[in-house]
Amino acid sequence: MIEFQSVSKKYSDSADTLALSDVSLNIAKGELVYLAGPSGAGKSTLMKMVAAIERPTSGRVIVNGQDVGRIRKAGIPFLRRNLGLIFQNQRLLNDRHILANVMLPLIVTGATKAQAEQRARAALDKVGLLDRAPALPMELSGGEQQRVAIARAIVNRPQIILADEPTANLDRAAADKVIDALHAFHSVGVTCVISTHDEQVLDNAARVIRLEHGHVTGGGA
Amino acid sequence: MNIWFRQHRFALGAALSHLRKAPGSFLFNVLVVAVALALPFAGVTLLDNVRPLSEEMSVDPEISLFLKADTPRDQAQALAPQLQQILHGSHAKVSFVPREQALAKLKDKSGLTDVIETLGDNPLPDSYVMKLEGFTSTADAARVDGLAEQMRALPGVDAVQVDSAWVKRLAALLGVLRLALLLLAITLGVVVIAVVFNTIRLQVLTQREEIAVSKLLGATDNFIHRPFYYTGALLGLCAGAVALGAVALALRPLNTAIAEFARLYASEFQLTPLPPLGMAALLAISAGLGLVGAMLSVQRHLARLK
To answer: CA of A44 to nearest chain B CA: how many angstroms apart?
Structure first.
């Protein structure tokens, strides 16, 4: 489902440092994979390449059979519609209530307002936040905001969920709820890739890919 | 097709929603654009009123052909068929005016009988007066010049006068006015585009996060661009409506002044607002200018957002 073939990435503003260096890995359909490593290890860069936010400097990134590095600009939105993206800082729109935030991925695909609302309410229900639908993001705690971000990521029924440090800045209880929610979606067949530097989260992980200084140091095979 | 309409409806709704969030800023921009549009709109209204006046004005040019003083009468009268031949195809009333008749008319009209009596011999030549009919537009004036030129070449002809020069001057003046208006409209059109360009630039900056998130969630460029296009077009449309309203209001005091002036010429000429089709065309042009400004701004500023 996700395949990295000798992928390297060098940002134009960095000197000679490679954000990713000759990374090769495979993630199968339906897998739950953790990306672990310290800050600057290359976890976010790897995630961004799967979502075509960044393109590899060399090597190939294959997602759902598509070479992300060669995909046309006009094709990127359609690739992203099969992905559920969760960010460390949630990136909710603060001037829209929670329901509108969760409806957004459906609205951009041309769903009717009624369809979008119905599915957004169902997604909020799954993360236990249906009663907060009319609230604004700023009225929610960090953990709740992250769960709204999860609802927004799954509302489009994506094949892959990419969660970049979803438990950062959360207390243990809130972090556990977020991880539980992600595990719940994995249990129904969604491929989940979760990056974290929180070792406690990795305790019960089936597969962990470890990154350091842009190199895969374990779990890539 | 349903999705297409739905997405356009969403874009229009998003544009209106953003306008509602900052109505003061939108109204200010509408006023700025309306001021820029009002001047060419007023010019178009004026030309639209004057154009039929000049076109419908009966030019009926007269050509006066004067023969040399020593031309025998029979030779003078023999010119009539040649003149008819030159005027062939044109409706014209050709009158021969013998020198005696011309003198009598001069005495009668000028009231200078005594002075003319002292001249002794009749100094006036035989002449032809040709009243051309069907020459009802200023564009026909050039044709009259062509006819006069052919008549000058006839034997015994001393001079040919055409009295439609003033019509040509009016046509030339209107031409200059039209050109000036076109240049003014182009200049102010650029101003309108610049104002809309800047308005949209500010909107793109304030909605940067929303745009970035929408892109990450799978929004296409068209989906992101459309609300800005609608905003630009709405801005142009509203400004166009305000400008048309301002011009219509300005016609009242102008017509009061024009009525007094026109009365001196026994005319009831009044400036009227543009017909509905003309107004619709100007509104469409305003909306189009807004759309162009928005498109240029979106292409430039959204390209910079990754």
So the answer is: 14
Q: Are B155 and B85 contained in the same domain? A: yes
Decide if A17 touches B, using CB distance below 8 A. Answer: no
CB contact under 8 A, A104 and B217: yes
What one-character-per-residue DSSP string does chain A give? -EEEEEEEE--TTSSS--SEEEEEEEE-TT-EEEEE--TTSSHHHHHHHHTTSS--SEEEEEETTEEGGG--GGGHHHHHTTEEEE-TT----TTS-HHHHHHHHHHTTT--HHHHHHHHHHHHHHTT-GGGTTS-GGGS-HHHHHHHHHHHHHTT--SEEEEESTTTT--HHHHHHHHHHHHHHHHTT-EEEEEE--GGGGGG-SEEEEEETTEEEES--
In this predicted structure, the answer to whether residue B298 has a pLDDT above a threshold of 60 is: yes
Q: pLDDT tens, B38-65?
A: 988 998 888 888 776 665 554 567 889 9
Do residues B226 and B190 share a domain?
A: yes
Give me the CATH number covering residue A62.
3.40.50.300
What pLDDT was estimated at residue A17? 78
Range of the domain at A55: 2-10+19-200
Whether residues B89 and B196 share a domain: the answer is no
The number of domains in chain B is 2
Domain of B111 in residue numbering reads as 62-163
How far is the alpha carbon of B226 from chain A, nearest alpha carbon, in Å? 12
- Given B163, B188, B210, which residue is the final one in a domain? B163
The per-residue pLDDT for A133 is 93
List the single residue in B with minimal CA-CA distance to A84. B217
User: How confident is the model over B116-147, as pLDDT tens digits?
Assistant: 777 778 888 999 998 877 665 556 667 788 88
DSSP label at residue B13: H
Task: Please count the structural domains in chain A.
Answer: 1
If you average pLDDT over residues A185-208, what whole number do you get?
86
B265 versus A20: the higher-pLDDT residue is A20
